[in-house]
């Protein structure tokens, strides 16, 4: 082999190594972004449930509505953390564990809030200086949940897209990292609380 051929082969190998390193670091950044978005969503879901419980126990809602919201918010708080979304089974691949339970509990809370805070009731409650800040806090928490879920699902989509590239699969750049999953829930707030 002559020197130009050896140099060309070395250049190609160096470019391939650089590209694989670039893709690996990109994938690592995307997985960190997914983890950060997952933690942010978890925090916002907890804040929304706490705000719902605070409003429900304030006496501003009728007893049945207060009980419905408190029960749904308590189940949402007890449903589990988002950290345990995916378990990797050697034979079956990624297996969802608590995702459905948490999604279902959070969706139930959204439905309970819509059922107990219909139409102009939130505006009426906001006029009360004692309850107004609780309604505002709940409205802000519902808005932040929608944003956090959108960011998480966007990050998961980006990571999944990169992991689907043939180079990433061929070089096994994802290592043993679990495939992230989107968080699907009913996050529509009561109409009067929607921003």
From TrEMBL:
<protein>
    <recommendedName>
        <fullName>LemA family protein</fullName>
    </recommendedName>
</protein>
